[in-house]
Amino acid sequence: xxxxxxxxxxxxxxxxxxxxxxxxxxxxxxxxxxxxxxxxxxxxxxxxxxxxxxxxxxxxxxxxxxxxxxxxxxxxxxxxxxxxxxxxxxxxxxxxxxxxxxxxxxxxxxxxxxxxxxxxxxxxxxxxxxxxxxxxxxxxxxxxxxxxxxxxxxxxxxxxxxxxxxxxxxxxxxxxxxxxxxxxxxxxxxxxxxxxxxxxxxxxxxxxxxxxxxxxxxxxxxxxxxxxxxxxxxxxxxxxxxxxxxxxxxxxxxxxxxxxxxx
Length: 263
Description:
With about 260 residues, the protein is of the alpha/beta class.
């Protein structure tokens, strides 16, 4: 028989990230800022990575005010040396990486018959290659220590198709299967790898895709008839980043108001 379920304080400790070190990519805006703050609220020290260093510093300062350690690192996840250097510096500064949140992503819309190979490659270089590079580098330390949590930010666009978004659909589908592959490869070595697939949320990236503020009018066929609200991804994130998900790996959790559940 298995262990009896934890109760009370013991149960809540499963979600406690005190003493853990988390890395969040694409942490200068949107969901990345929310993820970094949520991890800090759960007790983790947080290293924030992104291309726009000035914005990162504001995120870092917010986390420091929460009583957690935090440092900002300029990093373009599509550039291998940037990733190698940034992850090595985080390891040097914090002593370890327990949690990696691969959030960095871009979307470049357009009809396929007129879409450039350059834009296709740019989307894949960030959305898929970047996940591979950061995971590869973080895994080295995780495997030495026998512990790690990798959470990839995919999208419902990786589960379903949409007109004008073939590159994003394909890149996020790649992230979902990369998640499965890494999960299988490292399941017996103390590292879990899972993904979150957000539905429609208002963010800098979605505003850029739709060329306007994203409101409930963009909910489409979502059964809840609204877009996601700020903080509604945090529960899935903390679950997958914590020991509450110790027997969960290779999974993609859609946080989408039921969008992907209907015909």
